[in-house]
Recover the amino acids of this structure.
């Protein structure tokens, strides 16, 4: 069994642990948090034998072969570097880091390494996203004319909605785009097989000040305590934005990101219009792929393995009619990542389907270009990493 350590005891860590345990090839043996008390509490809750108060002690455990970085954004780069320098395989939450310089440094650290490195861009591992990518690659939809869509949530729509992601020093200079727009960009680049090379962005803040409850609010929390006391906090990161993009072949696209859209909990929508047909996928109905036609009835393809392309069918874990969703896509991502480790494959020799540090660095370059475009009000080129 491959021995695994988890750094971070917040919202996303248990999702990593659950997916790893479904594989049958890896065992989570340690967790680190920012205090020993919290680490021991989480270790007991999640049945993990070892608990540490810092990443260094976890990395000193000689049995650990793989480390998952599930910490807040502002420490991603530092911890990723420590994991790499300790000679352990690394799987990082997104974003890979906070700045373009950090992205370049991390890419340089792994470019000649045998370590398997991954970034948690999970949406590319949904069955119907993989089906879409295969249909585009096989020419089923023809020449891609345009791509559009968006990513919509509502967990930041109230003045009293606040957590660490609002603060640039913890979440980064961008919030809505870096947090969820990054997923849209990675998924679209994966699906179309084309890189985004230019962007034009208009980002906006709904609440210039927010009421932060004393203590930390959980991500996606909707709790509103009438008796709570609040601090008034200035807001510097965007709540929504509109982004136009240009791909490497000259084709165009546009999308909206929003964390203030009432009723939309996690809608990632991608529409691809081609010269033969259109494709549309919505993460809130993930098992369906809409196929649009000009001269015959439109179709709704479901993720029945018998209906998918042969090289995609294995990504649907159950027969048609059995509901699958985000945890199953997460498991698909981990399954491919750990198969690389188990087989001794090198990322330099065979590009995987999961996102690597190179993909994470590319998305950081897009984030950087979006921030610059919004500040300058013009088209900005995405830098090569």
């Amino acid at each position: 069994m491959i021995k695994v350590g988890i750094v971070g005891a917040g919202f996303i860590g248990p999702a990593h642990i659950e997916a790893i345990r479904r594989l049958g090839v890896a065992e989570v043996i340690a967790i680190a948090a920012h205090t020993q008390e919290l680490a021991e509490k989480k270790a007991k809750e999640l049945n993990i034998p070892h608990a540490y108060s810092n990443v260094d002690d976890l990395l000193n455990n000689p049995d650990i072969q793989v480390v998952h970085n599930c910490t807040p954004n502002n420490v991603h780069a530092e911890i990723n570097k420590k994991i790499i320098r300790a000679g352990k395989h690394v799987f990082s939450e997104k974003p890979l880091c906070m700045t373009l310089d950090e992205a370049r440094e991390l890419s340089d650290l792994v470019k000649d390494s045998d370590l398997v490195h991954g970034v948690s861009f999970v949406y590319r591992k949904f069955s119907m996203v993989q089906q879409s990518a295969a249909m585009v690659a096989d020419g089923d939809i023809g020449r891609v004319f345009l791509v559009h869509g968006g990513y919509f949530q509502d967990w930041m729509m109230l003045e009293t909605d606040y957590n660490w992601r609002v603060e640039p020093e913890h979440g980064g200079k961008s919030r809505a785009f870096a947090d969820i727009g990054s997923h849209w960009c990675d998924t679209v680049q994966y699906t179309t097989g084309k890189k985004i090379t230019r962007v034009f962005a208009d980002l906006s803040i709904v609440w210039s000040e927010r009421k932060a409850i004393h203590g930390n609010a959980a991500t996606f929390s909707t709790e509103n305590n009438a008796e709570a006391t609040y601090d008034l906090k200035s807001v510097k990161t965007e709540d929504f934005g509109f982004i136009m993009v240009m791909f490497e072949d000259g084709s165009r696209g546009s999308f909206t990101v929003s964390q203030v859209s009432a009723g939309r909990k996690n809608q990632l929508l991608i529409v691809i219009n081609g010269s033969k047909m259109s494709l549309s996928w919505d993460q809130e109905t993930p098992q369906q792929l809409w196929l649009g036609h000009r001269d015959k009835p439109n179709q709704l393809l479901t993720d029945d393995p018998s209906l998918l392309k042969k090289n995609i069918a294995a990504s649907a874990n159950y027969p048609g009619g059995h509901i699958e969703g985000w945890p199953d896509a997460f498991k698909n991502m981990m399954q491919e990542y750990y198969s690389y480790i188990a087989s001794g494959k090198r990322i330099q020799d065979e590009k995987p389907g999961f996102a690597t540090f190179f993909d994470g660095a590319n998305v950081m370059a897009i984030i950087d270009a979006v921030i610059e475009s919004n500040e300058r009000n013009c088209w900005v080129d995405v830098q090569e990493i």
